[in-house]
Design brief:
The protein is mostly helical and about 270 residues long. The chain has 2 domains: about 1-115; about 120-268. Helices cover about 80% and strands about 0% of the residues. The chain has 10 helices and no strands. Helix 9 (about 210-235) packs antiparallel against helix 10. It starts with a helix and ends in a 7-residue tail after the last helix.
């Protein structure tokens, strides 16, 4: 049953992505309502599928790459729908829905037995949950930064086309960018801490300096610098937008490195 619901969800996210992309290039707002309805329906089927999995295994199902990516996709949609309800920012679906769809698609194209997360994730599932929530925050910041750069270029080139009127004002995008980083950074911090504690319990070492752990720390330092730069030095919004776009690439590399290569004990 859950598998069928995941397939339905994937189809709805794909259709919603297409609808939102078409909406971005047309003046009609009717398509945004259609896309939002499809996205909401997909989120509903996704939620039911996750609940059925939890009931089936009697625990939070975050012990494999597929389940972690599904949770990331679900969390991303939850935040998206929340932002839409709060700010009526349906255009965000043009950028968020493709990420949610691709995340869920990865669970279908990668074999179930490869990769499997190591027991450290099974023992401390909260580490995965926190890491995924941090990634969601940075994903929203990435989208806000991307839209900021697009809108800024349209303004400078005086291209007041359909896309210009669909994208939010620069001030709003800058605020969304900063708040998203403030949301994601504490979760990433807690995720790293719980991962270190889990590693100490499992392998007897808080940090083994393998590529995944090292890159996670680099990513954490990067976003710390971005936050400090914005809050103390007063970095311009455009600079912060570019940095969050670059930073999200680091987040993806960290996450994919952990779940694809595996997070086992250091090789002696």
């Amino acid at each position: 049953m859950a598998v069928n619901l995941y397939q339905v969800t994937m189809g709805l996210y794909f259709v919603g992505t297409v609808v939102f992309l078409i909406h971005l290039l047309r003046r009609s707002e009717a398509l945004s309502k259609v896309g939002l309805a499809i996205a909401a329906l997909g989120f509903l089927t996704h939620t039911v599928a996750l609940v059925l999995q939890i009931i089936a295994v009697e625990k939070v199902p975050l012990v494999s790459f597929h389940k972690a990516m599904s949770f990331f996709s679900w969390s991303l949609m939850l935040v998206f729908l929340g932002v839409v309800l709060r700010y009526q920012l349906s255009v965000l679906g043009t950028f968020i829905l493709p990420l949610a769809f691709l995340s869920l698609l990865s669970t279908a194209v990668i074999p179930v037995e490869n990769p499997v997360l190591h027991p450290v994730f099974d023992a401390v599932w909260i580490h995965v949950t926190l890491s995924m929530l941090g990634t969601v925050g940075f994903a929203i910041a990435f989208v806000a930064g991307l839209m900021y750069v697009m809108q800024d270029r349209l303004l400078k080139s005086k291209q007041f086309n359909v896309l210009y009127f669909k994208l939010p004002p620069l001030d709003f995008l800058d605020t969304l960018n900063q708040r998203s980083i403030l949301l994601g950074f504490p979760f990433l911090t807690l995720g790293i801490l719980t991962g270190a504690i889990s590693a100490q319990v499992t392998w007897g070492s808080y940090l083994s300096w393998n590529p995944e752990q090292t890159w996670a720390l680099v990513t954490w330092v990067f976003y710390l610098i971005v936050l400090m730069g914005r809050m103390t030095v007063g970095w311009r919004a455009k600079k912060a937008a570019y940095l969050t776009i670059v930073g999200f690439a680091g987040v993806l590399l960290t996450f994919l490195g952990v779940v694809l290569k595996g997070h086992g004990p250091p090789v002696s």
